[in-house]
Amino acid sequence: MPSRSQLKTVKRLLKSVSSKRARIVIEHILEHGQITTEDLEKMGYNHPPRAARDVREAGIPLETFRVQSSDGRSIAAYRFGNLSEIREERIRGRKTFPKKLKDDLYEISGGKCAICSGKFESRYLQIDHKVPYEVAGDEQESEWSTDDYMLLCGSCNRAKSWSCEHCENWLNDKLPLVCETCYWASPENYVHIALREVRRADILWNEDEVKAYERLKKAARRDQSPIPEHVKKIIENYLKG
């Protein structure tokens, strides 16, 4: 259980937390000792882990545990973790990315998403930390090195967020070197995906390439295979010979 002095520290820092979702979670835990995914859904937050992530990204540790919902289901709940590990430098939230950083990343990538290689206008791409902010923060923000960031389309950014939020390293260990060897940080050179020994290849067909995709889809139907399985067969046959 957090001590009174630790809870006083949280209350003092609460005024500086910029994220509305984080403030709601913190205030609820201060009053009730915990907050459940059911509580968050009733408040209108349909993705409770995102609200909990906001608190963690604000530098306040949370623990996840299981409770029963009002209808008897097993659901997640959150309470304060070890408050001696509060990272006050994060309380004011993330710094705004400079426009030059995005412009430089866009030029380096050729306007492509780092995961699916789809080409997009700049406004459809989002700056992403290669190593999640929850793990490493913005320690290098004074330099804003393009080596630390990449551009992702909205779909790939959501996929990365979901995968990272369920990774043991993201939840507990927070070792940057583990993240650096993950697909989500280095899709061209990695050894695991969220600590699982799997490999993946994300492919996006753009504009004129859609015709090739339609041919692939027809071939997969003839083969009575899902498109990913059919692509695997094509690749295996090609590599054999």
Could you walk me through the main structural features you see in this protein, from its secondary elements to its overall organization?
Helix content is 44%, strand content 11%. It is mainly alpha-helical. The chain folds into three domains: 4-90, Arc Repressor Mutant, subunit A (Orthogonal Bundle), CATH 1.10.10; 103-180, 3-Layer(aba) Sandwich (His-Me finger endonuclease fold), CATH 3.40.1800; 207-240. The strands form two sheets. Strands 1-3-2 form a three-stranded antiparallel sheet. A two-stranded antiparallel sheet has the order 4-5. Strand 2 (62-68) and strand 3 form a beta hairpin. The longest helix is centred in the C-terminal third of the chain and has 14 residues, at 227-240. The protein is globular and about 70 Å long.
Question: Percent helix among the residues?
Answer: 40-55%
Secondary-structure element string: HHEHHEEHEHEHHHHH
Fill in the CATH topology of the largest domain.
Arc Repressor Mutant, subunit A
Strand coverage percent = 5-15%
Label the CATH architecture of the largest domain.
Orthogonal Bundle
Shape: globular
Structural class: mainly alpha
The tally of helices reads 11
The main sheet comes to: 3 strands, antiparallel
What average pLDDT do the residues reach? 87
- What order do the strands of the largest sheet run in, or round the barrel if closed? 1-3-2
CATH C-level label of the largest domain = Mainly Alpha
Question: What is the count of β-strands?
Answer: 5
Tell me the number of structural domains.
3
Q: Unreliable runs, pLDDT <50, ≥5 residues?
A: none
Q: Could you tell me how far the N terminus lies from the C terminus, measured between alpha carbons in angstroms?
A: 63 Å
Computed Rg? 21 Å
